[in-house]
Write a structure and sequence with these properties.
elongated; 9 helices; mainly alpha
């Protein structure tokens, strides 16, 4: 029971911290603001996290896990035709755009606030981007092996390039005044670009 209470409190702190870091920025945010939002004393806060950098690291880890869950939500080997593959890409893109539309704080945290604060945090973001690239590469390798993507396709570099396009779309959608419309526009632009570029 005690562990459940501790986990619940940590989740509440992380949720409050995510909002404050996104709204104020890492440097302007402080422990006092987070603790005050939760009507919590400083002493109580330090039972859960060592300092501001510690809680920010945990917030970024949560963001990365949420993105990874979407990216890994489909089976890369499940498609056998280019039309099935295209439908899979559209589903994944829709899920990813929905994640960032429902919580626009995610985009600000991972694309604006996280880089440049701490070298270990920079490595964490880079490792996450490499991991997302590996996920995307699995989808491309499946298409290459089954013959509906170009036989000479450089799957590793192409995966990173596609992710760069997708994450730029996500970044811009998150700050758009009309996020659903922006998501539709990006889907209409990115999906054909991908398939005209890699289809056999």
């Amino acid at each position: 029971m005690r562990n459940e209470i501790v986990d619940k409190r940590r989740t509440q702190i992380l949720s409050a911290a995510e909002k404050i870091f996104a709204e104020k920025g890492y440097h302007a945010a402080n422990i006092a603001t987070i603790a005050s939002k939760l009507r919590m004393g400083h002493g109580t806060f330090y039972r859960y996290f060592r300092n501001k950098l510690d809680i920010f690291n945990h917030v970024i880890e949560e963001v990365i896990q949420r993105i990874a869950k979407v990216v890994a939500s489909e089976d890369p080997s499940a498609t056998n035709t280019v039309s099935e593959y295209r439908a899979q890409v559209e589903r994944l893109g829709g899920k990813l755009f929905t994640l960032f539309m429902e919580d626009p704080y995610l985009s600000k945290l991972i694309f604006y606030e996280a880089l440049g604060i701490d070298e270990s945090l920079n490595r964490k973001i880079q490792n996450a981007m490499d991991l997302f690239g590996e996920f995307t590469e699995r989808y491309l390798r499946n298409g290459k092996e089954k013959g509906f993507l170009k036989s000479g396709l450089d799957t590793k570099t192409t995966a990173l390039a596609l992710n760069a396009i997708i994450f730029e779309a996500v970044r811009r959608i998150a700050v758009s005044a009309d996020r659903p419309r922006a998501a539709q526009e990006w889907m209409r632009a990115v999906i054909p670009l991908m398939f005209e570029g890699v289809a056999a």
